[in-house]
Design a protein that fits this description.
Helices cover 42% and strands 18% of the residues. It is built from 12 helices and 11 strands. It has a 7-stranded mixed beta sheet, with helices on both faces. The chain has a 4-stranded antiparallel beta sheet with strand order 1-2-3-9, with no helix packed on it. It binds zinc ion. The site of zinc ion has 9 residues, from loops.
Length: 344
Amino acid sequence: MKEHEIRPRELFDSFLEVARRDIDVYFAKSAEFVAVRCPACDSDQGRPSFVKHGMQYAECADCGSLFMSPRPTREMIDRYYRESESSRFWAQRFFPETAEPRRRFIFRPRAEVLNELLSRLDLPRPLIVADIGSGFGIFLEELRKLGAFEEVVGIEPSTDLACASRDRGFRIFEHPVESLNASDLQASVLTSFEVIEHLHSPFDFLHSARRLLAPGGILMFTTLTCSGWDIRLLWERSKSVSPPHHINLLSTEGLERLVGRSGLELVEIATPGKLDVDIVGNMLEEDPGTPLDRFSAYLLRHRGAEVRADLQGLLQRHCLSSHVRVVARAPCAQTSHSQTKSRP
Ligand SMILES: [Zn+2]
């Protein structure tokens, strides 16, 4: 998979441009922004790092997470995702135009990863899976194809997207996960992809998700991490550091602490990301003046595809890619469940 297969350059740049204009519309009242503690480890040791598009990012001196602070209130963020032009752009143009490559390169492999987890973890029955932020329901379709679950459910607050998935026969909760209760759903598996980085409070999100898990059920989520190669190299120049969308770029150490604070047990953390080297290479191609350390610039300018692929493999194996996957488990009443705990 290459960056431009799932994020065609012109389309992605148009999206970022629309998002930049939205900042002036939805986040002009920066006096109402609230300072926050580290969203990962709850430390108050956030140190200002840089300002991007008028928004301040801080780095946690305890766990190394990168996060926006002060940040818009929860209400401002909710309104933005409900009404903004960039949300419409994403739903009506960006996602539909990239849906099939995303199914092939992202959603189907995710379903396969989940299938592999099912084969080695003892999960509560009946086997119910719910995808948080199920969008157009492409991942729900891939989950259904596995044939492993007794029910496949979506959680999607957007009415348009919820309707699109219902038409294909899925039960959809049309609410944010924070408004659902244990009586609504007790899932064996919850999934959440690329959600955490957008939220006012990742802790509230995980804490709420925990309520919807049956004892011993697992949550698998992915997000961006500032521990990864491309974000660490490019830092404020990284397109992944994109206010107002990506406001939490938590370190892998911070994610481990966040999982623990939320009352979940870490099963595993891995960075299966495939794009770090490609992203930095593309950035250098677009802007040859991109400041990079001498070694990385030399490698990208003068070495071929084999070296790039080997480097990406090394980043994946050692938890150093900026795309991270976390599997965490709700505590069991009994402790007899088989469980793996590894940190590749
Ligand atoms: Zn921290």
